[in-house]
Specification:
The chain has 193 residues and is of the alpha/beta class. It has helices at 8-32, 64-73, 109-119, 137-153, 163-169, and strands at residues 38-41, 57-61, 79-81, 94-100, 120-131, 172-182, 185-192. It has a single domain, classed as Vaccinia Virus protein VP39 (Rossmann fold). The model has no long low-confidence stretch (mean pLDDT 88). The protein has a 7-stranded mixed beta sheet with strand order 3-2-1-4-5-7-6.
Length: 193
Amino acid sequence: MRGVEQIPWLYDAICAVAEWRGLDRWRRWVAGGARGRILDLGCGTGRNLPLLAAGRAVGVDCSLDALRRARRRAAGAPLVQASAEALPFRAGCFDTVVSGLVLCSVRDPGRGLAEIRRVLRPGGDLRALEHVRSSVAWRARVQDAVQPVWTWFAGGCHPNRDTERAIEAAGFTIDTEGRRARASLRRFVARVE
């Protein structure tokens, strides 16, 4: 499904506005804590890649157009076209997985999270910046109402996903230290135990 998220120049423009409004601090926090060998899952146009340790990060995205744009931001980073549900890496080969505004668009979140867990070493970190289902009842109902049109418009994004609950159901523990919430945005670290 092609939508705004798969049109690299438009996605970059939307992200630039969101970062100007404060999202950049959260993006820097998520990327800044990544250690060891890093997988930038759903790297898109590569906005996280320059913030990650040079030579330690691999970018993965399902969109070849987005990866072409990411190449401009991180010329030396390995970039791989793949989906979150079928990561072409051996088990336990990453110390950190960075997920920035990605899990809302994964077709099968359970399978994607199982793959994240598989490629993370024991004790590895999932560092996430995601928009999630609102904890405010009326806002959650609005998200439910707009979801079909939004998913079509945005190329697969589900604004009403309860991503934190899905992450915990996949066997991760969300660390309360550093976890922040602002409207429907969340930033946090989740660990494989």
